[in-house]
Design brief:
Blueprint (H helix, E strand, L loop, with lengths): L4 E7 L6 H13 L12 H11 L1 E7 L5 H17 L4 E6 L5 H12 L7 E5 L1 E2 L2 E2 L6 H10 L2 E5 L16 H15 L2 H4 L4 E4 H4 L2 H11 L13 H10 L1 E3 L4 H12 L4 E2 L11 H16 L6 H9 L1 H8 L1
Parallel strand pairs: 1-2, 2-3, 3-4, 4-7, 7-8, 8-9, 9-10
Antiparallel strand pairs: 5-6
Helix pairs in contact: 4-5, 6-9, 9-10, 9-11, 11-12
Organism: Clonostachys byssicola
Catalytic activity: 6-methylsalicylate + H(+) = 3-methylphenol + CO2
Family: Belongs to the metallo-dependent hydrolases superfamily. ACMSD family.
C-alpha cells in the first residue's frame, strides 16, 4: 500500500528547563515574535495531526546556535527516529560557521548505527553564508556522498519595522542566499547535492527572472564569470518546499523549477504554524498541483529524494 504524504519540514526542540523556557519567550518578544509560551516537542500531538492530515512521514530538523547544542540536537533527533522509525526522519544539523566542525559532524553522523536521512543548514550562521568560500570543503564532502541538504532561513534573524522575521524577512534572506550561491557556482560545482530550499525558496522565484535578465550585465560584480546559461542551470537544479507559502509562492516556484522539484513542507512544530495555517496551505498545494494533473504529486515527491524513507513509511 502506498504511504501518505512526506512532509520535509517538521521541527523539534531539545528539552528545556522552566528558566530556559522563560528566556526563550523573552528573547522572542525582543525580536517582535509575540508568543505566549515556549514551543515544546510533543511527538504524540504531531503524530495526531499528521494522521489527520494524511502525512505518513515527517522529516525533523533543529539548528541550535552553538555547536555543542547542535550535536545534542542531532543525537536527540536520532533517538526520536529510533522510537518512531516509520513516522519520523532526521535531517541532521551542520554548524556551517565552523567548516571543520561541520566536516566532523558529517563523519560522526554517517558512522552511527542509526544514521540521519539527510542534513539541514541555515542560510546564515555566525556571519557565514552558504556561498562562502570557506564552506567548499563541506560541500565537496556532501557532494561526494550525494546528500540531500535542507536549507532553512535564519531562524535567529531579527525582523524589521517591529514585526517578526518569519512574516516576510526570511523570504528575502533565502533569496539573498540563493543568489550568492549562484554567483559562487555552488550548484554548478557540487551537482550531486540535492538542495531543498524551504518556503518555496522565499522571494527568489519572483526575483529569478530579474537575476536572469540583469545578472550578467557589466555593472554586476561576477568574479567567477558565470553566464546566463550557468544561472539557468543552477536555478533549475534546486528543489523547494511549500511551507507557509503555497497560496502565492508555489506557482512562481513551479514555473521556476517544475512541479517535480516541489516537495511538501508543513513547518510543523513551531509557533508560527497552527493547524489552521497548515491546512490552508496544504489545500493550496493540492489546488495548484492539480493544475499539473495530480493533486497528490507534491506530497509524494519527497519520497524520490528519500527512497529509503519510503520503505520505512510502508513498514
Amino acid at each position: 500500500m502506498a504511504p501518505g504524504w512526506l512532509d520535509i519540514h517538521g521541527h523539534f526542540f531539545l528539552p528545556r528547563t522552566a528558566v530556559e523556557d522563560a528566556e526563550f519567550v523573552k528573547a522572542s518578544h525582543a525580536a517582535h515574535f509575540m508568543i505566549s509560551e515556549a514551543p515544546q516537542f510533543r511527538p504524540d500531538e504531531m503524530l495526531a495531526y499528521n494522521d489527520a492530515a494524511g502525512i505518513s512521514m515527517q522529516m525533523l530538523s533543529y539548528i541550535p546556535l552553538t555547536t555543542r547544542k547542535l550535536q545534542q540536537a542531532n543525537d536527540f533527533g536520532l533517538s526520536i527516529v529510533q522510537k518512531y522509525p516509520s513516522r519520523f526522519g532526521l535531517l541532521a544539523a551542520l554548524p556551517t560557521d565552523e567548516p571543520g566542525e561541520a566536516l566532523k559532524e558529517i563523519e560522526r553522523m554517517r558512522t552511527q548505527l542509526l544514521q540521519p536521512d539527510g542534513f539541514a543548514v541555515t542560510t546564515m550562521r555566525g556571519g557565514i553564508g552558504l556561498g562562502h568560500e570557506s564552506l567548499r570543503s563541506v560541500w565537496a564532502e556532501l557532494n561526494k556522498r550525494g546528500e540531500v541538504i535542507f536549507v532553512h532561513p535564519n531562524a535567529y534573524l531579527r525582523g524589521q519595522d517591529g514585526r517578526p522575521s518569519p512574516l516576510i524577512d526570511v523570504a528575502f534572506d533565502t533569496a539573498r542566499t540563493i543568489t550568492d550561491m549562484i554567483y559562487n557556482r555552488v550548484f554548478l560545482d557540487f551537482p550531486e547535492i540535492k538542495w531543498v530550499f524551504s518556503h518555496c525558496a522565499g522571494a527568489f522565484p519572483a526575483l529569478s527572472g530579474r537575476v536572469l535578465l540583469l545578472g550578467t550585465e557589466s555593472w554586476v560584480p561576477n568574479h567567477k564569470g558565470i553566464t546566463t546559461d550557468d544561472i539557468k542551470k543552477q536555478i533549475s537544479s534546486i528543489y523547494v518546499d511549500t511551507a507557509a507559502s503555497a497560496e502565492t509562492g508555489m506557482e512562481p516556484a513551479v514555473r521556476m523549477v517544475g512541479i517535480e522539484h516541489v516537495v511538501y513542507g508543513a513547518d510543523c512544530g513551531v509557533p508560527c504554524s497552527t493547524e489552521r495555517t497548515m491546512e490552508e496551505n496544504k489545500a493550496a498545494v493540492r489546488m495548484i498541483a492539480k493544475k499539473d494533473g495530480d493533486s497528490e504529486q507534491v506530497g509524494m515527491n519527497g519520497f524520490r529524494l528519500f527512497p529509503r524513507v519510503r520503505i520505512r513509511a510502508q513498514s
